[in-house]
Design a protein that fits this description.
heterodimer, A: mainly alpha, MetI-like fold, two-stranded antiparallel ribbon, 16 helices, 76% helix, B: mainly alpha, flat, MetI-like_sf (chain A), Carbohydrate ABC transporter permease (chain A), transmembrane helix (chain A)
Chain lengths: 313, 348
C-alpha cells in the first residue's frame, strides 16, 4: 500500500513537467506554434527547394518532379555539383584572397578609430561632426562613388608598381584584387568603427582612468587594456564584415568586371552561371548558389549568435 | 574585478618604468608629463610639440595623442567616401562620355536637365521610392510579428530565431538565384503552391506590372529576420512589469501589445527602418542577378541599376554620375534626419 503511494508520488514528480506542458496546451498555444512552424516553412522553402533541385538532372528531372520534392533515383545526379565546383573553385580562392585581408584590416582600423573617438578626452563639440561623418558613411549608396572609384583606380599605376609579381607568373588581373581589398577596407571602416564604438562606450572607465593616472600613454592603454578586452567585439565585427565583403557583387563587378577574368570573385561567376542560349540550367544555378554561399553559411552555423549580435547593432 | 584592476595597474607601472626601450616611441617623456596635467611639460619638446599642445588645448586633452588612432582611418574613409562624392558631383557637371577623360573646363547642369526629362530615370525614381517604402514597411511589420511570436516563451526559441535570420547571411546574388527558381513559371514553388488553390500560373518575373512586388517579397524574405533581431532586442529591453501591469489591468494580449508594448519600440523601429531603406537603395546586386547582367530590368529598374548601366554598359559617365547624385540625395534625405535624431538623443 505504502509502496504504491510512493510510486505514485515519484511518478507525479517526474510527470509534473509534462503535465504542466499539457495544461499549457490550449487554443492559443496551438495557434502560436502553428504560426512559428508555418514561418519556418516560409524561410526554409527557397533553400530546401534549391538544395533538392541541385541534385536533379536538367531538364528532365526538373520538369517532371515537384520543385520541393527530393529527386527520385532516375533523376538523381551529382554532375551539377561537380560543374559548379569546377566553375566556382577559382572564384572561391579569389574571393578569399581579398575578403580575408580586407576583413581583418577594416576591423583593426575600425577599432583604432573607435578608440580614438570614445576613450579620448575631447571637446564633444568637435567630436560630434567627425562621428556624424563616420555614421553617415555607412549609409552612402555605393553608386554615388562608383565613377570616381573607377577613375581613381584607372589613374593609379598599380600594375606598374606590381610588375615584379607579373614577372613571376601571377596573372596581371590580380591587380583588381588589390583594388578590391583597399576599397573594401575604406568602405568597411565606418560600420566597423560604429560597432566598436558601441562596445567601447560600455567599457569600464575606471580601469582606463587608473592606467592613465599611472602615466600610461594613450597608445599603451590601447595595447595593454583596450585591445585585449576587445576580443568578443572583434569576433562580431570580423564575422559581420567577412559576410558583407564575401557577398558583395557591385565592387567586384566594377573593379574586376568580367567573370572570365582569372581574378573573378565567386559572386561574379555565380551571377552568370547556368545562363545559356538553350535556356536556364536551374539545377546548376542552385548547386552554384550553395557552393558560393558555403563560407558564409559555415560562419553563420558556427557563429550564429555573434552574427545576430553584429546584425542587431 | 578590483584584483584585475590593480594587477593591470602594476603591470602598466612596470611598463611605464622602461619607457625608453619600449617600442611605442611615438610618445616622449614630455608627452607623458602633459598627461599628468602639467600643460607646461610640453614646453620642453620641439616647436611642433608646442603646436600640438595648442591643438590639445583647443580641442581637448587627448586630441593629438588620439589622432594616431582615428586620423588614418578617418582620412582613408573620408577620401574614398566624401572625396569620391565631391568628385562624382564635379563629373556630373561635365559631358564625360566614352573613353577620353572628363573635361573639367566646361561645367553645367545639363545632365540633370536631361535626367529630369528622361522617362527611364523618372520610372527608376518612382520604382526606387516604391521599393524603399513598401519593402521597409512590410519588412518592419513582418519582423515585428516574428519578434513577438519568438518572445512568447516558445520552446526551441533559439532554433527558430536562427532559421528566421538565416537568409540574411546569404549574398544578394545567391538569394536572387533561389527566387528566380521559386518564381519559375512552369516549375517554381510559388506557382505550384498557388496552383493547388486554383490560382495561376503567374509570370512573376516576366510581367512588368508585378515583378517589383515579387522583388519586394523576396527581399522581405531575406531581411525580415534582421528586423526580428532588432525588435527582439527592443522587446527584451522593456521591463517585464509593463507586461504584467497591462495583464493586471485586464488587457487582452493583442491590446497589451498595441497599446503598451509597440509604442515603446519606437527606437528599434527607427534604427531598423534606416538600415532597411539603405538595403533597398542598394538592391542593385539582387536585380543584376535577377536579369543576369546589364540589360534593362523589365519594370524593376531602380536608380541604382539605371546608374550602373549608364556608366558601365554604355559609358555615359557624366549622366551616370548625375543619376548617382540623385540617388545620393534620396539617401541623404533619410540619413540627415536620422543623424539629427541621434544627435538630439545624445548618441553622437
Amino acid at each position: 500500500m505504502s509502496d504504491a503511494s510512493t510510486t505514485d508520488t515519484e511518478q507525479s514528480g517526474a510527470l509534473a513537467g509534462v503535465r504542466e506542458d499539457l495544461e499549457a496546451i490550449d487554443g492559443y498555444r496551438v495557434a502560436l506554434y502553428a504560426a512559428v512552424l508555418g514561418l519556418t516553412a516560409f524561410y526554409l522553402t527557397p533553400i530546401e527547394s534549391g538544395l533538392v533541385t541541385a541534385f536533379k538532372t536538367n531538364p528532365e528531372g526538373i520538369s517532371s518532379t515537384l520543385p520541393f520534392a527530393p529527386p527520385p533515383p532516375q533523376f538523381f545526379t551529382l554532375e551539377k555539383w561537380q560543374t559548379a565546383i569546377s566553375a566556382l573553385g577559382r572564384g572561391m580562392v579569389n574571393s578569399a584572397l581579398y575578403a580575408v585581408p580586407a576583413t581583418v584590416i577594416s576591423a583593426l582600423f575600425g577599432s583604432f578609430a573607435a578608440y580614438g573617438l570614445t576613450q579620448a578626452d575631447w571637446r564633444p563639440r568637435y567630436k560630434a561632426p567627425i562621428l556624424a561623418l563616420f555614421v553617415a558613411a555607412i549609409f552612402i549608396p555605393y553608386q554615388a562613388v562608383l565613377v570616381p572609384l573607377s577613375q581613381f583606380w584607372g589613374s593609379v599605376p598599380l600594375a606598374e608598381v606590381l610588375a615584379p609579381l607579373w614577372a613571376i607568373g601571377v596573372p596581371r588581373a590580380y591587380t583588381g584584387l588589390i583594388e578590391l581589398t583597399i576599397s573594401h577596407v575604406a568602405y568597411g571602416i565606418p560600420i566597423c568603427m560604429v560597432l566598436f564604438r558601441g562596445y567601447y562606450t560600455t567599457v569600464s572607465e575606471e580601469m582606463i582612468e587608473a592606467a592613465r593616472l599611472d602615466g600610461a600613454t594613450f597608445a599603451r592603454v590601447y595595447r595593454r587594456i583596450v585591445f585585449p578586452i576587445s576580443t568578443p567585439m572583434f569576433a562580431v565585427v570580423l564575422i559581420y564584415q567577412f559576410t558583407q565583403i564575401w557577398n558583395d557583387l557591385l565592387f567586384a563587378l566594377i573593379l574586376v568586371s568580367t567573370e572570365s577574368s582569372p581574378a573573378a570573385p565567386v559572386v561574379l561567376i555565380l551571377a552568370g552561371l547556368g545562363e545559356s542560349m538553350e535556356g536556364q540550367d536551374f539545377a546548376l544555378r542552385m548547386a552554384g548558389a550553395f557552393v558560393a554561399a558555403l563560407p558564409t553559411l559555415v560562419v553563420y552555423i558556427l557563429f550564429g549568435d555573434e552574427f545576430a549580435e553584429g546584425v542587431a547593432s | 574585478m578590483r584584483d584585475f584592476l590593480s594587477s593591470t595597474r602594476t603591470r602598466l607601472r612596470r611598463v611605464a618604468g622602461r619607457d625608453g626601450d619600449s617600442d611605442d616611441d611615438v610618445t616622449t617623456d614630455g608627452r607623458v608629463a602633459t598627461d599628468g596635467g602639467t600643460a607646461a611639460g610640453g614646453a620642453g619638446a620641439s616647436g611642433a610639440g608646442g603646436f600640438l599642445d595648442r591643438l590639445d588645448e583647443r580641442f581637448g586633452e587627448d586630441f593629438t595623442e588620439s589622432a594616431v588612432f582615428w586620423l588614418p582611418p578617418f582620412l582613408l574613409m573620408g577620401l574614398f567616401v566624401y572625396g569620391a562624392i565631391a568628385w562624382n558631383f564635379v563629373i556630373s557637371l561635365t559631358d564625360y562620355q566614352g573613353f577620353v577623360g572628363p573635361d573639367y573646363s566646361d561645367l553645367d547642369f545639363e545632365m540633370y536637365v536631361r535626367a529630369a526629362n528622361d522617362a527611364g530615370v523618372i520610372e527608376a525614381t518612382v520604382n526606387t521610392f516604391l521599393l524603399v517604402v513598401s519593402f521597409t514597411a512590410v519588412a518592419l511589420a513582418f519582423g515585428l510579428v516574428l519578434a513577438v511570436l519568438v518572445d512568447r516563451d516558445i520552446r526551441f526559441e533559439n532554433t527558430f530565431r536562427t532559421i528566421y535570420l538565416l537568409p540574411m547571411s546569404l549574398s544578394f546574388v545567391v538569394t536572387a538565384q533561389f527566387w528566380l527558381w521559386m518564381y519559375n513559371y512552369n516549375n517554381g514553388v510559388v506557382n505550384i503552391v498557388l496552383g493547388t488553390f486554383g490560382i495561376g500560373p503567374i509570370n512573376w518575373i516576366g510581367n512588368s506590372q508585378i515583378v517589383l512586388w515579387a522583388v519586394v517579397f523576396a527581399l522581405v524574405w531575406q531581411f525580415s529576420g534582421y528586423t526580428m533581431v532588432v525588435y527582439l532586442a527592443g522587446l527584451r529591453a522593456i521591463p517585464r512589469e509593463h507586461f504584467e501591469a497591462a495583464r493586471v489591468d485586464g488587457a487582452s494580449t493583442l491590446k497589451m501589445y498595441w497599446r503598451v508594448i509597440i509604442p515603446q519600440l519606437k527606437g528599434s523601429t527607427i534604427s531598423a527602418a534606416i538600415v532597411l531603406m539603405v538595403f533597398a537603395l542598394k538592391a542593385f546586386d539582387f536585380l543584376y542577378s535577377l536579369v543576369s547582367g546589364y540589360r534593362p530590368p523589365n519594370g524593376t529598374d531602380i536608380l541604382a541599376t539605371k546608374m550602373v548601366r549608364e556608366a558601365y554598359s554604355v559609358n555615359n559617365w557624366a549622366y551616370a554620375s548625375a543619376i548617382a547624385i540623385i540617388l545620393f540625395l534620396m539617401a541623404l534625405s533619410i540619413i540627415g534626419p536620422y543623424l539629427y535624431y541621434q544627435y538630439s538623443q545624445g548618441e553622437l
